[in-house]
Amino acid sequence: MVDPRDTRLADLLVNYSIGLKKGENVYLLTDSVDTLPLFLEVYKKIIQDGGNPFSHILLDPHVSYEALDYTFMKHASEEQLKQLSELKLKEMQAMHAYIRIGGPANKYDLAGIDQERIALRKRTTKPILDERLRKKWAVTRYPTSSMAQTANMSTEDFATFFYNACLIDWSEQEKIQEKLRKILEKGKVMRILGEDTDLHIGIESRKFKKCIAKCQFNPDLGRFEGANIPDGEIYTGPIEDFTHGYIKYTYPYTEGVKK
Length: 259
Known about the structure:
By secondary structure, this protein is α/β, with parallel strands linked by helices. Helix content is 38%, strand content 20%.
């Protein structure tokens, strides 16, 4: 049976986040069969709303670093790592939007791969990534068992936590964030206090951006600023030569590969 929460999330991604228009081509990517319930709902929603889905499942190291797989990164020669797929570049050029659903079976799958090999592949595929960023785009996750384990939660509890963060009234959330944004832009210094934490961040004259689960075009950058679902932060760049103090991080930073 289809989880109605997947249907609602698919509608959010297709209609709200990327604002699909009839006839548009959508590059739809996932990195795990565990995400297929949501993947299929998004695939169906694109079709129902008159779009053209171009589905990509699992191994696709030619797209960008977002789809690197262990087999390719382990066994590819240096020549293969340096090879840019002109076919993939042309395909991305033909797209109007991009949706990725993350949920790897093992988020540490590339942990044993030489970082220089990964960096080389990222540089090689950068033209495809740059092309993708010129499209409307949205990225989300799926509450897989591996993600629940990382959060030290049961799969069911993690799924509830995940959907509750995604399936909110984003129009109402935008109003809340706009009030906060105006308050922040009036400030000069932001102070963060906590356990072993006293950090002063200069923000005078800085502009703050809202993240409201909707892809938005930034004319200053000449590209889209996409939607990361769940979303909701308000961010800025601090004054570079002012920030000072100390901070204690209480949660470990984890990634699929070491930085």
